[in-house]
């Protein structure tokens, strides 16, 4: 079983879940069912991904009790503001075909619109209604988090951010730790492929533990206290990415990963969202 982390309102969330960005709706059901068979219980989707329907179909088809599955989705940038946010949530719930969502996130702060505080208040209403178990944000910088906390008094359960060995975000993670916000890594593999293969440090750690580069990177996230949502639609990789709980790092391994930080962002900067 995948270990869980307790969120700031007592809800348990799997520390590793399946990310489904860019998996087409018609393929996502199969990918999520494969992940459930491999032992995953968490799925991360978003309105933007256009595959909430397929994710919901997988939950329904899986035969798993609803309470054993953790479904997260996100509110898109064009849906900021109280009324738009509540309508967007209704649409997501309908697409997913669920009675409730486990985690609902504001996808980006979109500071140009300056409506994220109002949007955040709407999300907290959804928790009171019992239609969402926990609410959080994504791509929020320290100043955005501070405003939410100062103006509403409600601390996000999760901040899902771009995080991988090449972008380790130490200040933001320290802020999360100080406030009991769970750090969730998006693009946890740095997009996989070449970047993983060409790192000497990662290859060395992988070889030492008899694991693949992807596996040791995902283990590194857990060691650092992050949760992660690697994406794959490939059954072999889906299974590979969850087979990481027997790895035990030593200080040398952790020190090796620390040298990889380069401040390189692979996605957009939150201030430009
Ligand atoms: P990722 O780091 O998970 O990389 C995914 C790619 O890595 C795959 O397409 C595949 O090519 C490769 N890969 C997967 N498993 C591998 C393995 N075992 N060995 C080698 N290569 C492997 O990147 P991502 O998909 O961008 O991020 C993961 C998830 O994070 C997304 O699916 C989505 O759910 C979420 N996300 C959120 C945001 C946000 O703004 N909140 C942005 C991007 C992604």
Structural description of this entry:
- The chain is of the alpha/beta class.
- The protein has a single domain, classed as NADP-dependent oxidoreductase domain (TIM Barrel, Alpha-Beta Barrel), CATH 3.20.20.
- The protein contains 11 helices and 10 strands.
- The chain has helices at residues 25-38, 52-62, 82-96, 116-128, 142-152, 170-179, 193-197, 200-209, 213-223, 235-242, 251-258; strands spanning 4-6, 12-14, 18-19, 42-44, 70-75, 101-106, 132-138, 158-162, 182-186, 227-228.
- α3 links the parallel β5 and β6.
- α4 packs across α5 (142-152).
- The structure holds nicotinamide-adenine-dinucleotide.
- Residues 19-21, 44, 107, 138-139, 160, 186-193, 196, 214, 229-232, 237, 240-241, 267 line the site of nicotinamide-adenine-dinucleotide.
Key attributes of the depicted protein:
273 residues; alpha/beta; TIM Barrel; eight-stranded parallel sheet; two-stranded antiparallel ribbon; 42% helix; binds nicotinamide-adenine-dinucleotide; NADP_OxRdtase_dom; NAD(P)_OxRdtase_dom_sf
Question: What is this entry, summarized?
Answer:
By secondary structure, the chain is α/β, with parallel strands linked by helices. It has one domain (4-186, 221-242): Alpha-Beta Barrel (TIM Barrel), CATH 3.20.20.
